[in-house]
Amino acid sequence: MPSRRSFLRLTAFGILVIVLVTVLAPLLRPRTEPVAQPGPLVVVSLPTLRWADVDERRTPTLDRLAEGAAIGNIATHAVAGHSCSGSVWATLSSGFRVSLDDATPEAPASGPVVPCPPIPRPVPTGGLAELGGPARFPDHARWRAEMLAQPVPAELGLLGRQLHEHGQCIAAAGAGAAIGAVREDGTVAAYQSDPRRADLRRCPITFVSFDGVDDDGLAQVVDRLPRDATLVVTGHADDQAPESLRAVLVRGPGIPEGRLTSASSRQPGLLRTTDLTALVTSRVSALPSTSYEGRIPVVLPGSSGADVREQLAATARALDVQHHLVRPFFTTYVLVSLAVIVVILCVLQRDRRRGQTIRRSAAGRALRVTSAAVAAVPVSTFLVGLVPWWQWARPTLGLTLSVLAWTAVLATVALCGPWRGHRAGPAGFLAATTAVVLAVDLVLGGHLQLMTMMGLQPVYGGRLHGLGNVGFALTASGALLAASLLTGRLARRDPSRAARVIAAIGIVTVAVDGHYALGDEAGGSLALVWGFGYLALKASGRRTTWRGVTLIAMLSAVTALVMATLDMLRPRYERSHIGDFLATLIETGDLSTVVRSTVVNNWAMLTSQWLNLGVPVLLLLAAWAARRPLSSLGRPLTLLERQIPLLRIGFTAIVLCWIVGFLTNDSGTSIPPAGTILIVPLVVLMTACAPQPPPEHPPTTA
């Protein structure tokens, strides 16, 4: 490990990096303007509404409202694979993604959508249903108990209760709207079954729910809007249509024209359902409670004309196409890659018996090209976001060809660049490129994270910004491997200096991954400190002792605490989940919620399909290869390490990072497989670039 003076210098460097990120991150954000509500608020849901459906001929009211409004897409995903109106309204009421007697599966790529369950309707309590009197849900107590028992407890009726405590009521027109307006006792202040007859003056807030895209019904609501009212129109749910981003617009006297965004999405033109919860709550509090997932929407000033609407429609279309291509693309990618590499290895065995070296044989050249291409695919799925493939007449073909084109470019550069003379040069280039591309994308706003098959999946996931688990696995694996390859020879000459270089690379990687303004990955920063800490310890030439392990554990805990504290010190309406967690922990001292959520979600993902059960087996095999250098699994790494110093130690650090990430991340099951699809072909590439092993080793150990 570095000396005390070097340790202090690295600490100062880490503080400088964190300070620079904290100071410069706000400067990189575009200017936004708040959403004011000088009068009443009316929220209208038109399920399945997309910007592709809006034009002057089919939806004249919506087309007219969009001009001069703040517009965007909204991610309606709740808990089930398919978002249904009942669950989405319950999500708005509780401020968390919840399910309301709903287990509707994801729609198939082709075929009919599984119907959503009927929306429960409240029972009038005053006999004035037609006039908009009070009503009550008989099943409310059961719904509330089920939601409070879920891994992340949610309180149905929280929104209605908080508004009621501040003297404001919510009127509802339509069954779905009544779920959104319900209070903690199961009552609705004012309920009208017909959304076209909604009383917009009875309460300061009115929820209106139609059964679909009803432009005529919306026109009737708009005609009766109070002059100073703020109107929100949202697609709200998928219902009978396949999953997609839905349209949302906000219009009123305090609303600037432009694109909507929020601190929970950080993506221009994108909101989530719980952001509407925060919008409603902001009427009674300038600092909404941290008990909500969402954040108050704001506006990026600009145009909201037809060209902007087309961009929003194109984003939704691109996400639809790439999601349905994920399974067939990666199944084909993995199976074809394995088959080709196995065939080439069999040919190599034949060539070795004939005395041909791996570097000069045709099979060796084929193995180098194939493994480089396979390793370049993951980062290519991110870089493809720079190409407008969704504008092709056949966007699926455009996406596939664009990924293959980026793969060919990166593989060519890796094999033909100035580093080709080094045995680890091509692999090091691809590992570093993967980590750098994802890190730079985070600094620039994370657009590539959103528009990729291996990214955030906003239509189906709960995360819309930062670094997802798959992106973390690729970034961490690439950075650790690149650091070990870069400092391998240096470690033989000057171990202390090599450890300092590794620590510096680790500090930058952890800052990008864990800072709330960039990756926003709490569990990821923990795992990275363990990986880079172990790599620096071994590069310095020291043995792994309990003292070293304790120091790494302390650094990991301190890093996570610093990241969470920086986030918690921000205003409540800007915090991410990391700051919210620390604030809640300080207030309640309860760790059980986050632990239960991590364990339950990981277990649910692990057992969701039989293939996922192989993840623990994969980790055990990788750990065996790393820690048993003379085993059949570890011998190839040991032979390579004779020409590539620190390779096996770097691989061990990567496996350690996978294990910690698997245990500490929500849905961390995806981390080991995602890291494997980068590391395995890179190891094969280094094998293909290495010379024949010494004569004393039999051919079967190559």
Report on the structure:
The protein has 702 residues and is an alpha/beta fold. It is 53% helix and 8% strand. It is elongated.
Descriptors:
single chain, 702 residues, alpha/beta, 11-stranded mixed β-sheet, 3-stranded antiparallel β-sheet, 23 helices, 14 strands, 8% strand, disordered C terminus
Tell me the overall shape. Answer: elongated
Average of pLDDT: 87
Tell me the distance between the termini. Answer: 34 Å
Structural class based on helices, strands and sheet pairing: alpha/beta
Task: Catalogue the unreliable spans.
Answer: 695-702
Helix proportion: 40-55%
Indicate the multimeric state.
Answer: single chain
Which percent band covers the strand fraction?
5-15%
Largest sheet: 11 strands, mixed
Total of DSSP H or I helical runs spanning 4+ residues? 23
Radius of gyration: 27 Å
How many β strands by DSSP? 14
